[in-house]
Amino acid sequence: MTTQLPVASGRRTVAELRTLLRPQRGRMAAALVLLVGGTVAGLVTPPLLGRIVDLASNGGGTGEIVLTGAGLVLGALGEAALAACGAALLAQGAESMLATLRERFVDSALRLPLEQVEKAGAGDLTSRVTNDVAAIAEAARSALPRFSRAVLTIVLTLGGMAALDWRFLIAALIAVPVQARTVRWYARRAGPLYSSQRVAVAAQQHHLLSTIEGASTIRAFRIADPHAARVGSKSQRAVDLLLAGVALQTRFYARLHVAEFAGLAAVLGTGFFLVRGDAVSIGTATAAALYFHGLFSPINVALALVDDAQVAASGLNRLVGVAELGQDSAVSPAVPGSSPASSSPSPAPAATSMPVTSPATSAEPSPSSPSAPTSQPVTSAAPSPSSPPAPTSQPVTSAALSPSSPPAPTSQPVTSAAPSPPAEPAPPPVMVSGSHAVLVRGLSFSYRSDRKVLSDIDLTVAPGERVAIVGSTGAGKTTLAKVIAGVHQPTTGTVSVPAGDVALVTQEVHVFAGPLAEDLRLARPAATDDEVRAALAAVEALAWVDQLPDGSATEVGAGGHTLTAAQAQQLAFARLVLADPPVAILDEATAEAGSAGARLLERAAAAALAGRAAVIVAHRLTQAASADRIVVLDAGRIVEVGDHRELTSRPGPYATLWEAWSDQRPDRD
Ligand SMILES: Nc1ncnc2c1ncn2[C@@H]1O[C@H](COP(=O)(O)OP(=O)(O)OP(=O)(O)O)[C@@H](O)[C@H]1O
């Protein structure tokens, strides 16, 4: 089930617009002055035409008529020039505001908790950056200048009518109640309709995208028909709502025409009686009728643009919704305990002395472990609520390594990760005996409330230690890796990665479009050419990279040189080398390739992991055999811990897995 990303309220959006408007104030004020000037220049036309009527009916001189005609031409030219400049300035200002909002949206979207994006589906974000931005851009470019001019024309024309004779203004205002009712009637229906249109289009795009992305799976399982039917029903819903919008607009215009008829009849009738009573000349009555007729177009434009405004406003609310959400989540890592990799939905224990004497199944480092933590006791104080926010580390390492990497956690040495509100007293310091790279305490995790996927996990990984997680399919290996990496938040318990960044490398490696070296620099933008080459050499990729048409400058990714899955995986390892995080999580990173390729990738992984703590989800048990420690998971619980020699020397779950795997292995390496 998908959960749409949030939509901001109208009030929040207006507040956001006000902030965006601040730097554009000068430009917008100049635009307003120009537009008012243009409108006033246009409003001289009806009185001048009325004057020509009077001159003609009273037998005035040709010279005077020509002079009035010249005034008409000047008025038209002035109107055109001033209005064009004003509209251009207004559009520029609006575009600049939109550009800023778009940048903030992208920035926020990249910081969103992955879980939230996954729940909302890719279509939601995509439709916000495509359809919504297009609707707002269109409104900013064309609707806003037209709307501003229309409103100015209406206001100033009504003033012009009053100047001719106040009774013309009263007659013209007869149309207003009908128009006001029409607008209210329309706005009540249009808002919800456009919102549901956007939701329907987002759902349609989401299903379309996921169907295209999963095309090979759909074909393999022969489930094309139900998928096509699902896309069809989503499309039908979007079409129905779009047609409902067209029907609504038609009824809207029909009502407006009634208002126009009533208003014009009233103005002409008033003119007739005023001329008969010698209160005004025929020319003045003509000017009043022309003024009122001149209102048709701007009133229709302004009211019709209510339509565009509704569409743009609903798009704007959706953009601001994400922009604000991203700000919230960007801020949250600074709050003690709320960073992805150091989170705790439940309050941390008051004080814990570690290492805790662990039961046989607790995955503490064994004393014989080659990289056991130092025995020097380290007191690490959990940040108190009043302490300054922990500095957030660059999100570059994790984000660049895998599309499913989480935002980087805080780099503060947080061992206790209670999300205590500021009002609560500071949690007492947690005593940690020995340093650690990853500390998992009492962790449980559920995707759905009715089923625990992980239960009572305690795991400590020492700096530089390599821990392999093994277990049968569905045991919870990937889930544990993702929780440690911060992709998922623990349901209960704590995960802390005190040393700073953690990088997740999965087998779904994304190669970003662009030169290969730039792809690697996503992990470390400041990396020199030599560092990039050294990283490639470390993972044994330099030889084939040098053979590419333009070496490391070769365009790769979508539309560029196609890389094999193994090459893409090597690039992911090279990014890991460049990012140089103290902790790396590998999830089946070498499971893709065939046997020879797998050995190459295993060497690349080993090189990339050198010197850092690693949690490796091991499907090939050779990965487990070479690890410092092996953690065996079964149905979400740790059932066995030890190194390969230890675990194969006695009967147990790992020995059984090893035996079964050794029997199947064709190469027995
Ligand atoms: N996104 C999800 N939503 C709901 N349940 C899930 C989700 N991902 C995994 N699960 C369930 O959680 C359990 C553990 O899955 P997980 O992928 O962590 O196991 P695994 O040991 O990595 O398995 P495998 O070796 O097949 O990858 C399984 O029962 C799986 O069906």
From TrEMBL:
Gene3D superfamilies named in the record: ABC transporter type 1, transmembrane domain (1.20.1560.10), P-loop containing nucleotide triphosphate hydrolases (3.40.50.300)
Membrane-related topology note: Multi-pass membrane protein
Region called Disordered, residue ranges: 330-429
ABC transmembrane type-1 domain residues: 29-310
InterPro entries listed in its UniProt record: AAA+_ATPase, ABC1_TM_dom, ABC1_TM_sf, ABC_transporter-like_ATP-bd, P-loop_NTPase, Type_1_exporter
Keyword DNA-binding among record annotations: no
Residue ranges of the TM segments: 28-45, 65-91, 150-176
Domain ABC transporter residue range list: 438-660
The protein's name: ATP-binding cassette, subfamily C
